Amino acid sequence: MSGHSKFANIKHKKEKNDAAKGKMFTIIGKEIAVAVKEGGADPNNNSKLRDVIAKAKANNMPNDTIERGIKKAAGNASAVNYESARYEGYGPNGIAVIVDALTDNKNRTAANVRSAFTKGGGSIGTQGCVSFMFDEKGQILVDKEEAEMDADELMMTALDAGAEDFKEEEDSYEILTAPNDFSVVRDALENAGVKMANAEVTMLPQNYVTLTDEEAIKKMNILIDKLDEDEDVQQVYHNWDE
């Protein structure tokens, strides 16, 4: 994975236009609703909600918007019930793609995701057809410019809390955890005053694939853009080295 700057990718996404920011807030709003429904509205007793709140703050979601989302989810028994759905498939030149969605209508979502793959020159596959090429990990990224600790101190804080790995990139530090250890490590870093640029459980490709054909690159961008535009799509993972 050398040379693949995950931090630069995330920074680029955050700096995109207001429409992209609005989509991110919608995604996080759904995650707040699901977390509250599953574990209650008190983040002190709901680690999943704590994780979503941390993700919201890392994405510059205003505190009052977060609080409104929690209150709305807690006080509305007739709120929309979101079901999670995962789709796996291939983009141009066999690029592996995983799509996670939260939806109130699985038929609609499946049709939209299938359409996005078709327009992007790819195809939907069976469950498990590409997920074996990814590792599920807790991933925490810290901007070097905002890190008050030096690399060794940050590394020891993370490893002592249960992190699996610590990597120093050109512009950031990357901390990886087992999915079940993510909340504990994230809490420890937050309590130590570490400002996190991104913190979430994600799917990391074991290997990245480079596209050189202009038409394949164009199609791959269409596929990602179509999925990003879908309100039901929460997250898109792929092994394309952009």
The order of strands across the largest sheet is: 3-1-2-8
What are the secondary-structure elements, in order, as H or E? HHHHEEHEEHEEHEHE
Residue share in helix: 40-55%
- Helix/strand-derived category reads alpha+beta
On the 0 to 100 scale, the average pLDDT is 89
Question: How would you sum up the global shape?
Answer: globular
Largest sheet: 4 strands, antiparallel
Please report the number of helical segments.
8
Query: For the CA atoms, what is the radius of gyration?
Result: 18 Å
In terms of per-residue confidence, which ranges show pLDDT below 50 for 5 or more consecutive residues?
none
Distance from first to last alpha carbon: 12 Å
How does this structure look, described?
A hairpin with a 5-residue loop joins strand 1 (83-90) and strand 2. It contains 8 helices and 8 strands; from the N terminus they run H-H-H-H-E-E-H-E-E-H-E-E-H-E-H-E. Helix 2 packs across helix 4. It has helices spanning 6-14, 18-39, 47-58, 63-75, 106-119, 151-161, 182-191, 214-229; strands spanning 83-90, 96-103, 123-124, 134-143, 165-168, 172-177, 198-205, 233-238. The longest helix has 22 residues, at 18-39.
List the helices and strands and how they pair.
Blueprint: H1 6-14, H2 18-39, H3 47-58, H4 63-75, E1 83-90, E2 96-103, H5 106-119, E3 123-124, E4 134-143, H6 151-161, E5 165-168, E6 172-177, H7 182-191, E7 198-205, H8 214-229, E8 233-238
Antiparallel strand pairs: 1-2, 1-3, 2-8, 4-6, 4-7, 5-6
Helix pairs in contact: 2-3, 2-4, 5-8, 6-7
Compose a concise summary of this entry.
The protein is built from eight helices and eight strands.
